[in-house]
């Protein structure tokens, strides 16, 4: 499949079958994140795979947007390993790096027939604490994923795009 076709086909899935993602499929999704580019190749991103009954129950108690996905990825970054911009204080790459990793995994999942949704609706600090992450690891997003239930279709907002000239400006 061509990349633009894949990018247009992918949509946020919010209802999943009660079927776990096969290990070989999940391994490919994780590999897509593993090879993602990061600032100065510092590789500060962290991916936590939540599949256990306790872990899924915990994440569902922390966010109404975990839906009924059998797998939820918690994507974060290690603060001390991110790139710090030497030209401007306070500018660093952790969130960007973790986001690139998440995008790679989301698109690989779609290519493999696995649905996913990017979730920002969760208490980042409490989630890190509940999963005993080191204090220096900062959650960026949750990514519930699995096989979409039959009949699940994109939200009407999926194709509701602003004119491209509102996004793109030539300087």
TrEMBL record:
<feature type="domain" description="Nitroreductase">
    <location>
        <begin position="66"/>
        <end position="147"/>
    </location>
</feature>
<dbReference type="InterPro" id="IPR029479">
    <property type="entry name" value="Nitroreductase"/>
</dbReference>
<keyword id="KW-0288">FMN</keyword>
<dbReference type="GO" id="GO:0016491">
    <property type="term" value="F:oxidoreductase activity"/>
</dbReference>
<dbReference type="InterPro" id="IPR000415">
    <property type="entry name" value="Nitroreductase-like"/>
</dbReference>
<feature type="domain" description="Nitroreductase">
    <location>
        <begin position="8"/>
        <end position="63"/>
    </location>
</feature>
<protein>
    <submittedName>
        <fullName>Nitroreductase</fullName>
    </submittedName>
</protein>
<dbReference type="Pfam" id="PF00881">
    <property type="entry name" value="Nitroreductase"/>
</dbReference>
<keyword id="KW-0285">Flavoprotein</keyword>
<keyword id="KW-0560">Oxidoreductase</keyword>
<comment type="similarity">
    <text>Belongs to the nitroreductase family.</text>
</comment>
């Amino acid at each position: 499949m061509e990349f633009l076709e894949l990018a247009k086909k992918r949509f946020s899935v919010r209802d999943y079958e009660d079927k776990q993602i096969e290990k070989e499929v999940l391994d490919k999704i994780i590999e897509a994140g593993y090879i993602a580019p990061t600032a100065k190749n510092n590789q500060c991103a962290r991916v936590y795979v939540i599949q256990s009954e306790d872990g899924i129950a915990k994440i569902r108690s922390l966010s109404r947007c975990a839906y009924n996905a059998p797998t939820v990825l918690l994507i974060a970054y290690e603060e001390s390993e991110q790139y710090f911009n030497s030209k401007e204080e306070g500018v660093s790459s952790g969130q960007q790096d973790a986001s690139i990793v998440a995008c790679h995994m989301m698109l690989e999942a779609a290519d493999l027939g696995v649905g996913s949704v990017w979730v920002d609706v969760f208490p980042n600090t409490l989630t890190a604490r509940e999963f005993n992450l080191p204090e220096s690891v900062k959650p960026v997003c949750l990514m519930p994923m699995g096989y979409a239930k039959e009949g699940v279709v994109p939200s009407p907002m999926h194709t509701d795009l602003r004119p491209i000239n509102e996004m793109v400006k030539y300087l």
